[in-house]
Amino acid sequence: MFTFFSNWRRQRLLARFDSERRARWQQNLNALAILDGLTQDEQTRLLELGWCFLHHKRFTPVMGTELTDDHCIDIALMAALPVLNLGLEAYGVFHELLIYPEEFVTDQPFMDDNGVEHQGREELAGEAWEQGPVLLSLSKLADSRQWNGYNLVIHELAHKLDMANGGIADGLPALPAALQPDWLQVFPQAYADQSRQVSQAHLLDRRSAEAMLAWDRIWIDPYGAENQAEFFAVCMEAFFTDPIALNLAYPPLYQLLRQLLQQDPIARAPHWQPLPHLH
Question: Which has more pLDDT, 151 or 277?
């Protein structure tokens, strides 16, 4: 009964997605570099999924954000990309995106050297709350369009994908049974490797050639070393915006994400080679 109702609601939404609206959305899709190379069928499905995402969620501007239709369309298209072949249900249940004009300050717990937890203030560009909304900074949206390893929308919605498997972000999304054994081996190993590389780089004099080389060898965002939840979000971000780097860093993890998401962005990404001194 629920599936019937969901399909009925989807068809009602798509009936309103007429040719004029599709043409408007297609213009936005064409302007998003990370969507280059999608087949016509993939583009059609992405447009329809983005349209449904926009109408399933509340886009709430806060703190005086001037939120335009183009902003909402871009966010919806980027949100649809990771679940293009999974469906919006893969994100679990959440209802709202809060859009801030700039980075915002939030309370964050942290652990001191003695293992005592404290509350601190941290400036963030985005956040995904367990059992709550997704928070995004509009000022960072313009940086989320290119093949540059950064995408705020994909990063924060990766947390929702992660949370959909049990309600907490822990780097273990809902997986097909066939992928679970490999994931439980590959993902923790990759996370431990990045944590080790980041820790070693921090110990070096940041002005030294050795330090620069150490940071250059960290192919994906070092923020992933924070914890396994952030590592998963960073890997998802890289998968869609710098897949070559993710595959250079952790080929088995790239292959697992390819199987999980049923996509292979390397086939459409701009090709590049690592710097000679890093070979």
Answer: 151
